[in-house]
Amino acid sequence: MLDRQIPYFNMILKCSTYQPEKIHLPENFSFRYFQPGDEKNWARLEYEIGDFASPDEAEEYFKETYGKEQEELRERCVFLINEQGDAIGSGIAWRDKRKGKSAASLHWLVVDPAYQGRKLGKALCRKVMEIFWKKGEFPVYLHTQPWSWKAVLLYLRLGFRLQKEDTFADYENQYQAAMETLKNVLNEEQYRELLAHSEDGR
Hints:
Blueprint: E1 11-15, E2 30-33, H1 38-48, H2 55-66, H3 70-76, E3 77-81, E4 87-98, E5 101-111, H4 120-135, E6 140-144, H5 149-157, E7 161-163, H6 175-183, H7 188-196, E8 198-199
Parallel strand pairs: 5-6, 7-8
Antiparallel strand pairs: 1-6, 1-7, 2-3, 3-4, 4-5
């Protein structure tokens, strides 16, 4: 589970180019796109990792944020399905504003805690990035925070780079504070990896 005692700061990542690769899933696992009713699956997943105080709160957020764009959801919201047909992960290839224009942004990549540690998050992230690639929507931004440092390392290994100054939506880029925090959380090799994948570009 996420260590939410780690201080919260805004971290902005950007992927400028992406080359799709074959996605490897364990046998009997699969992907499918959003279907009516999946707002409850999404809400359950986000509640289970602690992003919302209740499934109802999560579901209300989903409906308010995405619910009016059902056609877009059917193309941009992906679920990872297990052997029993249950949704055990999700990711959304969405968009936000940046300098008054539309910017591609990866929203809410999540894997059920019971299934973490099996490289399913990597496969799910690749599936979402494939959506952006097919639509020709690059660069792709995402927002995260220090307590998601394991996910940050995953994103960097898939082609994202930490932004020292660049940002999108209404996020204040807090790179320096986030890095100071992570210096006390990560081992030396992991911290060097973050530094090696940081860039100044705006």
